[in-house]
């Protein structure tokens, strides 16, 4: 079984590329982030026509997460327990979606950006990650074959950014953010992709200043799995080619292959 995660940066803008990639990559399950669509705007029919079942959680033209699967899609749950909200009035945003696909509990996450180190959105990000950590702990303790995958908006190690000097006073690499990422690992999850990619392999490149061409990227998209999930991983890769060309997302898909 092939499972992937991909921040598509607007499903409506990139549905043609998503369709083409699904057909080319032959993946069974994809966790999608930043759909930027309400449920009523999501192109369910086009993905279903390719043989995938689809679950989507979207409240407005921001955020939004989805799971598409051709190996079953059951037990669909939007968000997770104790997820904090944002805004005035406070709303629990569409940033997480869980479903069981082919016997694997899959959670698609779009972690808040944090914006700047002193921004209130950073406190929100850390609170959101703390609630996610509790969810991860419950899943690992239950012995589930589970994966939490998506855009974490964190580069947990220095090798995950093109220049630590550039990012030292910016979000994504601060110690509180990295500690929140480690807390999910400590709860019983494993970064199943890192052993299969070279240091300096990135998943995100900004659209500006020729960042992709200059290899100025970040590794912020991850697939974390419980030990039963990790034990089944045969290989993993970042599909950097999908970041190329007209109309590409600023993120590349990340794919893992599981033994039966």
Report what the structure shows.
By secondary structure, the chain is of the alpha+beta class. It has six helices and 14 strands. The protein has helices spanning 11-25, 44-48, 120-141, 164-167, 175-186, 227-230; strands spanning 2-7, 29-33, 53-57, 65-69, 74-78, 96-101, 104-110, 146-151, 189-191, 204-205, 217-218, 221-226, 233-238, 254-258. Helix 3 (120-141) packs parallel to helix 5. The longest helix has 22 residues, at 120-141. The chain starts with a strand and ends with a strand. The model has no long low-confidence stretch (mean pLDDT 97).
What labels describe this entry?
14 strands; globular; 27% strand; 260 residues; alpha+beta; six-stranded mixed β-sheet
As a whole number of angstroms, the C-alpha radius of gyration is: 17 Å
What percent of residues are in strands? 25-35%
Overall number of strands: 14
Shape: globular
Termini gap = 7 Å
H and E order = EHEHEEEEEHEHHEEEEHEE
Number of helices: 6
Question: What low-confidence regions span 5 or more consecutive residues with pLDDT below 50?
Answer: none
Largest sheet: 6 strands, mixed
The order of strands across the largest sheet is 3-4-2-1-14-13
Class per helix and strand makeup: alpha+beta
> Mean pLDDT, nearest integer?
97
Q: Helix content range of the residues, please?
A: 10-25%
């Amino acid at each position: 079984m092939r499972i992937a995660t991909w921040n598509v940066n607007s499903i409506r803008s990139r549905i043609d590329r998503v369709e083409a990639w699904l057909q080319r990559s032959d993946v069974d399950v994809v966790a999608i982030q930043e759909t930027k669509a309400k449920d009523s705007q999501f192109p369910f029919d086009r993905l279903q026509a390719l043989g995938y079942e689809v679950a989507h959680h979207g409240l407005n033209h921001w955020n939004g997460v989805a799971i598409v699967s051709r190996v079953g899609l059951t037990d669909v749950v939007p968000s997770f327990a104790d997820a904090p909200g944002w805004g005035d009035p406070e709303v629990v945003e569409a940033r997480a979606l869980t479903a069981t696909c082919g016997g694997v509990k899959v959670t698609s996450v779009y972690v808040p950006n944090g914006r700047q180190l002193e921004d209130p959105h950073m406190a929100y990000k850390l609170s959101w990650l703390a609630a996610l950590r509790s969810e991860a702990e419950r899943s690992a303790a239950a012995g589930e074959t589970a994966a939490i995958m998506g855009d974490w908006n964190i580069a947990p190690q220095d090798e995950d950014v093109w220049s630590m000097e550039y990012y030292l006073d910016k979000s994504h690499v601060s110690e509180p953010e990295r500690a929140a990422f480690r807390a999910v690992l400590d709860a019983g999850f494993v970064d199943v992709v890192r052993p299969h990619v070279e240091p300096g392999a990135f998943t995100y490149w900004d659209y500006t200043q020729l960042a992709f061409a200059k290899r100025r990227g970040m590794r912020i998209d991850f697939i974390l799995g419980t030990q039963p999930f990790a034990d089944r991983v045969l290989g993993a890769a970042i599909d950097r080619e999908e970041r190329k060309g007209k109309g590409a997302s600023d993120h590349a898909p990340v794919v893992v292959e599981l033994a039966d």
